[in-house]
Amino acid sequence: MRIGSKYVPLTAYLRAQPPEVSSVTLMLAEVEVIIGAPLPRSAVTAGRSWWTNAPVQPQAQAWRSAGWTVASLWRGGGPPPLWTVTFTRVVSDTITPPRAPGRP
Fold it and tell me: Phi and psi of 65, rounded to 5°?
């Protein structure tokens, strides 16, 4: 899947996090600085549905391709309300899937 070009800097930012960093919390204004552009209004008005990890969303492709997911979206006090998003690193599954019967 091709990442929407607007969000490529977010992919790079998340990929650049050291391996020992398992979560990153950013204010939405910080995300805008990282991508070098304002987030669409729907990033706030649609709330969690915009920040979904669904692979069909270009913004989700950005963090998913970097190996991260959105764990939470939080609205802090204001005015104006200070929204934060927390990304968590996807840990690769180390459990071996069960083998089919009769196969070594």
Answer: -70, -20
Domain ranges (residues) in the chain: 5-89
Q: Helix H segments across 16-73?
A: 28-35, 42-45, 58-65
The pLDDT, as a whole number, for residue 64 is 95
pLDDT at 46: 86
- Nearest CA among 20, 11, 29, 26 for reference residue 68: 11
pLDDT in tens, 31-51: 999 999 999 999 988 888 999
Full-model pTM? 0.80
Residue with structure tokens 């764990």?
71
- For 70, the token pair is 């959105």
> Are 86 and 78 within 8 A, CB to CB?
no
Contact 28, 85 (CB under 8 A): yes
| SS3 label, residue 49 | helix
